[in-house]
Structure formats: C-alpha cells, structure tokens
Amino acid sequence: MADLKRELRLYLLLRGASLRGVLQYRGNLLMMVLAGAAYQGSGFAFVWALLHTFGTVAGWGLGQIAFLYGMRLLSHALWLVTIDGVGQADFLIREGQLDRMLLRPANVLSQMGTYTRSVLPFGDLTMAILVFGVALTVADVNWSPASIGFLVLAIVGGAFLEASVVVVIAGLSVRVLDTWAYRLMMLDTIDTLGSYPLSVFGTGVQRVLTYVMPIAFIAFLPAGVILGRTGQLAVPAWLGLLSPLVGVGLFVLAYRFWRHQLRFYQGVGH
Amino acid sequence: MRTGTRGYLAYVRTAIAMRLQYRSMVFASMAVTLLWIVLVTRVWSAAYQGRDTVAGLTLESTVVYLTLASLQAVVINTPITWIMASRVRSGEVLFDVSRPMSYPGQMLAMQAGQSLIQIAVMVVVTPVAGLLGGLSAPAGLAAGLLYPVALLLGWTLNALLTLLVGLTAFWTVDNLGISVLYRFVAAFLAGASVPLIFFPGPLRAIAEALPFRFIVYQPAAIYIGQIPVTEAVTGFGLALVWIVILSGLLALVWQRSHRRIVVHGG
C-alpha cells in the first residue's frame, strides 16, 4: 500500500512536469486542443447530420447515440489524459529513453505514461465533455444512485480497456521496435467501432465484437444497460454490467504481458 | 524547361520511395478505410430502415456513394504537411529553397508521389471495398467519363489546400494542430461520410460555398448520377476558378513565408 502511494505520488510529480513542459508552446496549444476536438467531433458530426434526416438508427435516437458516443469519448480521453505517453513506447525505446527509465526507482510504465509532448488529449477531453453534456440534456435516462455509480465505473472500465490495447502494443515494441502502424490501426478500429450502436451489425459481427475483440464492452453494452436499450442485441444484455470488470481484467493481463516482455529488453545499441 | 520537369519528376519518385518505406503504414491505412466502409454503409442501411428513397437518393446509390467517397477521402490524409514542418525544424528547408525550382512546385510533386501510392492501393482494394460496402457501374456513359475529370480537379484542390496548411509551419514551426484540424474538417465538409444533400440547411449552404466538396462529394455524386451533366460541367468551371484563386493565394503566402525562414541553430 505504501508502495502504491509512493508510485502515485511520483506519477503525479512526473505528469505535472510534462504538462508544464507542454504549456511552454502557447502558440500551438489552442490549435492542438482544437485539433483534438475536431478529430473526435467529426465522427459525431456524421451521426448528427445522419439523424437530422432519419431520426433513429437501429432504434437509437440522437440523444442516445450522443450518450453512447460521449461515454466512449470520456473513456478515451481518460486514458489519454492519464497515460498517453505509453502510445509512444516504440519511439521511447528507439531513442534510448527506456534505458534512463529503467534506472530510475519508479514504475516504468508510469514513467512512459507521463512522458508526453502533446495537448491533443485535452481536445479529446473537451469534446467528450461537450458531447456527453449535450447527451445528458437530450437523452431520457432514469437516474438513480446505482445508475450514476455504474456510469462512473463503466467509463473507468472503458478507459482501462482501451489502455490495455496500448499497453499490449507497448509490450510488443520491446521486440518489434516499430509499432506505430499497428497502434494506429488498433486505435482507429476502436474509434470506428466503439462509438456507434453495434446493433447496426448482424448477429455474427456483434458476437465477434463482444467475445473476440471486446470493443462492445467499452461503451455500447454499458450504455445499453443505462439507457435500457436492449433491442436487436445479439448477446445477453446483462453482459454490459460486467464491463468495468472486463476493462480492469484486460488491463491487468496487458500489464503482466508488458512486464513479461520487458524482461527481454535488449536496448537498441545506444 | 525539360530539366525543370525532370527535377519535379525526381521529387515524385522520391515521394513514392518514401511512402513505400512505410509499407505497414500503407497496409494499416487500407485496413482502416475498409473497416470504415463496413461501418458507414451498415449505419446508413440501418438508418434507411426499409425506406426506398430518402432525399432523392436510393439506399443502393447511397451505399455506392459512401464506398467511393471513403476511398477518395484517403488522399486528404497526407504526410506532406508533416514533412514540410519537420524540414523547417531541422533546417533542411534551406536546401529545398536554394534549388533552382519553385518550393511549392517541389512540395506539389511530393504530394503527387504520395497520392500515386495511395491511389494505387485504393484501386487494388476497390473490389474488396465493393464486396464490403457496395459498388455498381457509373450511372451512365457521361457520368463515367466525367468522373475521372472531377477526381483530378478534386485532387488538385486538395493538394493546394494541403500546401497552404503546410506553409503555416514557416510561422509556427509546428503545424500538427492545424493539419489534423484540416484533415477532419475538410473530410467532413467534403462529404466523406455524409452526402451533402443530407446536411441540415445552414451547414449545407456553408459546405456548398467552400471548395472542399469538389474533393469527395462532386466526383462521387457525378458517378451515381446525382448531378446532371450540365450541372457537373458548371461545377468543373467553379472548381477551376477555385484552383486559380488558391494558386494565387499559395504564391502570395509562399512569397511572404520565404522571407520568414529562420533556421534553428543551423
């Protein structure tokens, strides 16, 4: 426990330092936040323009899709704002930064996570709050202490689930050195499939996205639980309740994979 | 004149070689485009919900539009702005501007090389895209003949806009923010995921007034027969006017950025 507290304190210290570094480039700051927002906002603009004409997609109205989209974005922004540096693992290894991190008395993943030069995550966060805020005023939700509690857990679970993908790719970077194409492909896949009602797909695809590539657990299944939307669902609706556990579980597995790979680290000849 | 052309062709070849160095990147972008085609066509099919025609478009034509539009929109995503910024930062831009060739011309040639690979990959995966989304023959002979012309005009407009975005690096050193912004705003306003006729009124007016629609919407809409021949030809005229305006603007901005070059500790 004392160990964890120490790691947490070190994490906050490093994160604070990297953010102060980012804030030095004031000219780029606003542009980057706007870019992050445009990145995530363009996907929502698509849904908005579509529903303007059609009203519903697979039974989901604008408010409900905004709720789903906002939930996914909050999870996404949460992992980015906390440990987005992990996404640069291959670069950090090639540059020899990992050697320096291995020598310091702090968790290596936490050091990587705090190594950042970007404020794009804050654009994601801005957009997430905006879309989710709008969703809350439009979507008809039966709020109760239990549903609010579940919402928070589900968003955290979604963040863990997305982060676990990046941590696995960081583990691969120890062996492969150049992983940005894989990372981009995985993150784009999650961006594409994580934010829309998967009931637009048939039974087979829905099952694959639940049991094989569990993208449905990031937002689609838990949002369905909160909104009471279980129509056209090809998997049991109660699975959505498990989403926080699925997220944390996958992250633990990903972390163990990363630790295991790290043992094979050989350096890149600096 | 001849040596000039040869120089620019060398740039095209270099850009092709650079792109081919990042083969896994090419593969990833192809996979993501195909995945997007699957999603976007399913979402639209679900929205149609058995209705035959909405806003004058059948589901079948909409699906063909979306498949083509997703493939066409790939050219909007180019590393050229990043290359321009990194050469400003490293000081290599000094070699670029001291060559006896126009700097915008060099970058345009690089963009052409990049796009050639992107387009080649997209042509190769078109049958797969057709299976995953949906494709059909062009709406008629005229549509089939006008489509490549529209594509070429759209490519030129996108290249000019991209270079303008890239040139901001001469002022701000980094242009990542504005290029990401351009990529997503342009793709949306170009109609990459929603045909312009489905845009809500005011947004449609904005999108119609801006040049982005010529990159994706115009060619794809001509292909599915949504735009009649006379209107298509008028559109080409308008696109040419845009090309002239943007070329002028590019020359003007370049003239000003040329004076601003600061080589960092070179």
Which helices and strands, and how do they pair?
The complex is a heterodimer of chains A (270) and B (266).
Chain A (H helix, E strand, L loop, with lengths): L1 H21 L3 H29 L1 E2 L2 E2 H22 L5 H6 L2 H7 L4 H7 L5 H19 L6 H32 L3 H15 L8 H10 L7 H8 L15 H20 L8
Antiparallel strand pairs in A: 1-2
Helix pairs in contact in A: 1-6, 2-3, 2-7, 3-7, 3-8, 3-11, 8-9, 8-12
Chain B lengths: L1 H20 L1 H26 L4 E2 L2 E2 H14 L7 H11 L2 H6 L4 H30 L8 H27 L1 H4 L3 H14 L11 H9 L7 H7 L5 H30 L8
Antiparallel strand pairs in B: 1-2
Distance between the termini of chain B: 32 Å
Our estimate of the beta-strand percent of chain B is under 5%
Regions with little confidence, pLDDT below 50 for 5+ residues of chain B: none
Order of helices and strands of chain B: HHEEHHHHHHHHHH
Radius of gyration of chain A (CA) equals 19 Å
Mean pLDDT of chain A: 89
Concise summary:
The complex is a heterodimer of chains A (270) and B (266). Chain A is an all-alpha fold and 270 residues long.
Structural account:
The complex is a heterodimer of chains A (270) and B (266). Chain A is mostly helical and 270 residues long. Chain A has helices at residues 2-22, 26-54, 62-83, 89-94, 97-103, 108-114, 120-138, 145-176, 180-194, 203-212, 220-227, 243-262, and strands spanning 56-57, 60-61. Chain A has a two-stranded antiparallel sheet. In chain A, helix 1 (2-22) packs parallel to helix 6 (108-114) and helix 3 crosses helix 8 (145-176). Chain A is globular. The mean pLDDT of chain A is 89. Chain B is mainly α and 266 residues long. Chain B has one domain. In chain B, a hairpin with a 2-residue loop joins strand 1 (53-54) and strand 2 (57-58). The longest helix of chain B has 30 residues, at 103-132. The two termini of chain B are 32 Å apart. Classes of the chains: A mainly alpha (270), B mainly alpha (266). Chain A binds chain B through residues 25, 27-28, 30-32, 34-36, 38-39, 41-42, 45-46, 49-54, 56-58, 120, 178, 180-182, 184-185, 188-189, 192-193, 196, 199-201, and chain B through 22, 24-25, 27-28, 31-32, 35-36, 39-40, 42-49, 54-55, 172, 174, 176-181, 184-185, 187-188, 193-194, 198-200, 203.
